[in-house]
Specification:
The chain is an alpha/beta fold. The protein has helices at 59-63, 68-84, 143-151; strands at residues 37-38, 53-56, 90-95, 122-129, 155-160, 167-168.
Length: 171
């Protein structure tokens, strides 16, 4: 009888998130004009308050940039905004996947560009997705980026613009 030797291979090793979300109660009967966005998709329990700024990369502006280099240069501009808002609380909203290396799928920012160090205070990265973006309808960011954001205490949120019950008030 031949015994097989088993060798386990460790493919990935990531820390478990110890981020404790907060239980919050949403206000009822908000006037429609006061709702900036809402979604029924997965949202972590928690609260982001005292938001003073929103960095909004418009889908039509982003996808009308004439070259891949122009889209890639946006990463540098976003990093400059991160630095300028180092003592402020703000959120980022943009088309497709934040952090994608493929500029056709969304706003390219490397992990080092995301607001993960103490000099940055972005509280949320909001990814707009759906057919309403035009010819490209990327899925939201994957699990690795999601986990990195959670460890940095940044709320990732995808807003599927095609969902009937989604509110996204651009104004």
């Amino acid at each position: 009888m031949v015994k097989k030797q088993t060798r386990p291979y460790l493919l990935q090793c990531r820390p478990q998130s110890h981020f404790q979300g907060l239980e919050v109660e949403l206000p009822e009967n908000l006037p429609e004009e006061d709702i900036i966005f809402s979604t029924r998709r997965m949202v972590l329990h928690g609260l982001v308050d005292d938001i003073h700024y929103v960095l909004f990369v418009t889908p039509e502006g982003y996808y009308s940039l004439p070259t891949q280099e122009a889209r890639a240069s946006l990463s540098s501009a976003i990093n400059q905004v991160n630095t300028a808002l180092a003592k402020e609380n703000y959120i980022c909203v943009g088309p497709g996947r934040w952090g994608s290396k493929n500029n056709d799928l969304g706003v390219h920012i490397g992990y080092s560009d995301t607001p993960t160090s103490c000099r940055h205070n972005t509280s949320a990265l909001i990814e707009l997705t759906g057919d309403l973006l035009g010819s490209v309808s990327p899925n939201p960011s994957g699990a690795h980026f999601f986990q990195d954001l959670m460890e940095a205490r940044i709320y990732p949120l995808a807003i599927y613009l095609n969902d009937r019950d989604v509110v996204f008030n651009r104004k």
